[in-house]
Amino acid sequence: MINVAEIGGCTIIRLDRPAKANALTEAMLIGIAQAVAAARTPVLILTGEGKVFSAGADLEEMKSGLGLSPAWEAASGAVAAYPGLTIAALNGTLAGGAMGVALACDLRVAVPAAQFFYPVMRLGYRPQPSDPARLAALVGPSRAKLILLAGQRIDAETALAWGLIDRICPNEALTDTAMSLAEQALAADPGHVAALKRMTTGEAP
Fold first, then answer.
1. Closest Cα to residue 201, out of 156, 134, 110, 109?
2. DSSP element (H, E) containing 165
3. Cα separation of 54 and 201, whole Å?
4. Residue 114 lies in a domain
5. Which helix (H) or strand (E) holds 2?
6. CATH at 193
7. Burial (CB count within 10 angstroms: exposed 0-12, middle 13-18, buried 19+), residue 144
8. Residue 121: what pLDDT?
Protein backbone atom coordinates (compact mmCIF):
# COMPACT_ATOMS: atom_id res chain seq x y z
CA MET A 1 0.00 0.00 0.00
CA ILE A 2 3.10 2.20 -0.03
CA ASN A 3 5.17 2.34 -3.20
CA VAL A 4 8.63 3.87 -3.27
CA ALA A 5 10.59 4.81 -6.39
CA GLU A 6 13.59 6.97 -7.18
CA ILE A 7 12.99 9.14 -10.25
CA GLY A 8 15.20 11.94 -11.49
CA GLY A 9 17.09 12.10 -8.21
CA CYS A 10 13.89 12.31 -6.13
CA THR A 11 12.52 9.68 -3.81
CA ILE A 12 8.79 9.41 -4.52
CA ILE A 13 6.62 7.81 -1.83
CA ARG A 14 3.15 7.00 -3.12
CA LEU A 15 0.08 6.02 -1.11
CA ASP A 16 -1.42 3.18 -3.11
CA ARG A 17 -4.80 2.20 -1.72
CA PRO A 18 -7.11 4.03 -4.13
CA ALA A 19 -10.08 1.69 -3.61
CA LYS A 20 -10.18 2.96 0.00
CA ALA A 21 -9.35 6.58 -0.87
CA ASN A 22 -5.82 5.93 0.43
CA ALA A 23 -7.13 5.75 4.00
CA LEU A 24 -4.14 5.27 6.25
CA THR A 25 -3.60 2.07 8.21
CA GLU A 26 -0.94 1.55 10.85
CA ALA A 27 1.05 -0.53 8.37
CA MET A 28 0.97 2.34 5.87
CA LEU A 29 2.15 4.84 8.48
CA ILE A 30 4.99 2.53 9.44
CA GLY A 31 5.79 2.13 5.75
CA ILE A 32 5.98 5.91 5.28
CA ALA A 33 8.34 6.31 8.24
CA GLN A 34 10.55 3.47 7.02
CA ALA A 35 10.64 4.77 3.45
CA VAL A 36 11.61 8.26 4.61
CA ALA A 37 14.32 6.85 6.89
CA ALA A 38 15.75 4.83 4.02
CA ALA A 39 15.73 7.69 1.49
CA ARG A 40 19.05 9.28 0.57
CA THR A 41 18.07 11.74 -2.16
CA PRO A 42 18.12 15.55 -1.79
CA VAL A 43 14.39 15.70 -2.57
CA LEU A 44 11.49 13.61 -1.31
CA ILE A 45 8.01 13.77 -2.86
CA LEU A 46 4.94 12.33 -1.15
CA THR A 47 1.89 11.70 -3.32
CA GLY A 48 -1.05 9.34 -3.78
CA GLU A 49 -2.67 7.06 -6.33
CA GLY A 50 -6.13 7.83 -7.68
CA LYS A 51 -8.30 10.90 -7.16
CA VAL A 52 -7.82 11.36 -3.39
CA PHE A 53 -4.52 11.93 -1.63
CA SER A 54 -5.93 10.41 1.54
CA ALA A 55 -9.27 10.34 3.32
CA GLY A 56 -7.41 10.19 6.63
CA ALA A 57 -7.38 7.28 9.02
CA ASP A 58 -8.82 3.89 8.16
CA LEU A 59 -12.09 3.90 10.12
CA GLU A 60 -12.04 0.19 10.89
CA GLU A 61 -8.60 0.49 12.46
CA MET A 62 -9.70 3.60 14.34
CA LYS A 63 -12.20 1.39 16.16
CA SER A 64 -9.32 -0.71 17.43
CA GLY A 65 -7.15 2.17 18.60
CA LEU A 66 -5.32 3.49 15.53
CA GLY A 67 -5.94 7.06 16.67
CA LEU A 68 -3.60 6.53 19.63
CA SER A 69 -0.86 4.78 17.69
CA PRO A 70 2.62 6.32 17.84
CA ALA A 71 2.92 5.49 14.14
CA TRP A 72 1.23 8.81 13.27
CA GLU A 73 3.90 10.91 14.93
CA ALA A 74 6.62 8.57 13.68
CA ALA A 75 5.53 9.14 10.08
CA SER A 76 5.11 12.92 10.27
CA GLY A 77 8.22 13.26 12.43
CA ALA A 78 10.31 11.37 9.89
CA VAL A 79 9.10 13.68 7.12
CA ALA A 80 9.75 16.80 9.21
CA ALA A 81 13.27 15.64 10.10
CA TYR A 82 14.26 14.74 6.54
CA PRO A 83 17.34 16.82 5.66
CA GLY A 84 16.35 17.36 2.03
CA LEU A 85 13.50 19.28 0.42
CA THR A 86 10.15 17.56 0.99
CA ILE A 87 7.14 18.18 -1.24
CA ALA A 88 3.58 16.92 -0.84
CA ALA A 89 2.09 16.49 -4.32
CA LEU A 90 -1.57 16.31 -3.41
CA ASN A 91 -3.43 14.48 -6.15
CA GLY A 92 -6.78 15.13 -4.47
CA THR A 93 -8.45 15.75 -1.14
CA LEU A 94 -6.39 15.79 2.05
CA ALA A 95 -8.39 14.88 5.14
CA GLY A 96 -8.07 14.01 8.79
CA GLY A 97 -4.93 12.41 10.12
CA ALA A 98 -3.36 12.41 6.67
CA MET A 99 -2.84 16.12 7.21
CA GLY A 100 0.11 15.23 9.43
CA VAL A 101 2.52 14.01 6.77
CA ALA A 102 1.54 16.81 4.38
CA LEU A 103 1.91 19.52 7.03
CA ALA A 104 5.35 18.13 7.84
CA CYS A 105 6.52 18.69 4.26
CA ASP A 106 8.37 21.83 3.24
CA LEU A 107 6.07 22.54 0.27
CA ARG A 108 2.62 21.45 -0.84
CA VAL A 109 1.16 21.50 -4.37
CA ALA A 110 -2.39 20.38 -5.14
CA VAL A 111 -4.81 19.75 -7.98
CA PRO A 112 -7.78 22.16 -8.40
CA ALA A 113 -10.39 19.71 -7.07
CA ALA A 114 -8.57 19.07 -3.79
CA GLN A 115 -10.37 19.86 -0.56
CA PHE A 116 -8.96 20.10 2.93
CA PHE A 117 -10.62 19.22 6.22
CA TYR A 118 -9.79 17.68 9.59
CA PRO A 119 -13.07 16.47 11.19
CA VAL A 120 -11.78 15.73 14.69
CA MET A 121 -14.42 17.89 16.38
CA ARG A 122 -17.34 16.12 14.73
CA LEU A 123 -15.88 12.62 15.17
CA GLY A 124 -14.74 13.13 18.74
CA TYR A 125 -11.07 12.35 18.10
CA ARG A 126 -8.04 14.48 18.86
CA PRO A 127 -5.58 15.50 16.15
CA GLN A 128 -2.10 14.09 16.37
CA PRO A 129 0.04 16.17 18.76
CA SER A 130 2.21 17.92 16.17
CA ASP A 131 -0.55 18.72 13.68
CA PRO A 132 -2.25 21.78 15.24
CA ALA A 133 1.00 23.70 15.69
CA ARG A 134 2.17 22.89 12.16
CA LEU A 135 -1.22 23.90 10.79
CA ALA A 136 -1.24 27.16 12.75
CA ALA A 137 2.30 27.95 11.57
CA LEU A 138 1.06 27.82 7.98
CA VAL A 139 -2.38 29.42 8.15
CA GLY A 140 -2.39 31.25 11.49
CA PRO A 141 -4.13 30.33 14.76
CA SER A 142 -7.61 31.58 13.85
CA ARG A 143 -7.74 29.74 10.54
CA ALA A 144 -6.36 26.61 12.21
CA LYS A 145 -9.29 26.85 14.63
CA LEU A 146 -11.70 27.25 11.72
CA ILE A 147 -10.46 23.92 10.39
CA LEU A 148 -10.09 22.05 13.68
CA LEU A 149 -12.75 23.51 15.98
CA ALA A 150 -15.32 24.81 13.49
CA GLY A 151 -14.82 21.84 11.19
CA GLN A 152 -14.55 23.95 8.06
CA ARG A 153 -13.83 22.26 4.74
CA ILE A 154 -11.82 24.51 2.42
CA ASP A 155 -11.15 24.27 -1.30
CA ALA A 156 -7.84 24.55 -3.11
CA GLU A 157 -8.18 28.25 -3.87
CA THR A 158 -8.83 29.02 -0.22
CA ALA A 159 -5.98 26.75 0.84
CA LEU A 160 -3.65 28.65 -1.49
CA ALA A 161 -4.83 32.04 -0.22
CA TRP A 162 -4.36 30.91 3.39
CA GLY A 163 -0.88 29.47 2.79
CA LEU A 164 -1.83 25.87 3.42
CA ILE A 165 -0.62 24.98 -0.08
CA ASP A 166 1.93 26.70 -2.30
CA ARG A 167 0.74 25.92 -5.84
CA ILE A 168 -2.37 24.73 -7.67
CA CYS A 169 -1.73 22.88 -10.91
CA PRO A 170 -3.67 20.71 -13.36
CA ASN A 171 -3.90 17.02 -12.51
CA GLU A 172 -1.70 16.04 -15.43
CA ALA A 173 1.00 18.52 -14.38
CA LEU A 174 1.17 17.57 -10.69
CA THR A 175 4.37 15.53 -10.84
CA ASP A 176 6.01 17.96 -13.25
CA THR A 177 5.18 20.87 -10.94
CA ALA A 178 6.69 19.09 -7.94
CA MET A 179 9.77 18.18 -9.97
CA SER A 180 10.17 21.78 -11.16
CA LEU A 181 10.18 22.99 -7.56
CA ALA A 182 12.87 20.40 -6.84
CA GLU A 183 15.24 21.47 -9.62
CA GLN A 184 17.54 23.74 -7.66
CA ALA A 185 17.72 21.43 -4.65
CA LEU A 186 18.58 18.54 -6.97
CA ALA A 187 21.41 20.57 -8.51
CA ALA A 188 22.84 21.69 -5.15
CA ASP A 189 25.10 19.99 -2.67
CA PRO A 190 22.93 18.02 -0.21
CA GLY A 191 24.70 19.64 2.72
CA HIS A 192 23.79 23.07 1.37
CA VAL A 193 20.16 22.01 1.02
CA ALA A 194 20.14 20.74 4.62
CA ALA A 195 21.77 23.92 5.95
CA LEU A 196 19.29 26.23 4.22
CA LYS A 197 16.41 24.10 5.47
CA ARG A 198 17.65 24.36 9.05
CA MET A 199 17.97 28.14 8.72
CA THR A 200 14.32 28.50 7.68
CA THR A 201 13.28 26.90 10.97
CA GLY A 202 15.57 29.12 13.03
CA GLU A 203 18.24 26.46 13.62
CA ALA A 204 21.96 27.01 13.20
CA PRO A 205 23.14 26.24 9.64
1. 134
2. none
3. 27
4. yes
5. strand 2-7
6. 3.90.226.10
7. buried
8. 87
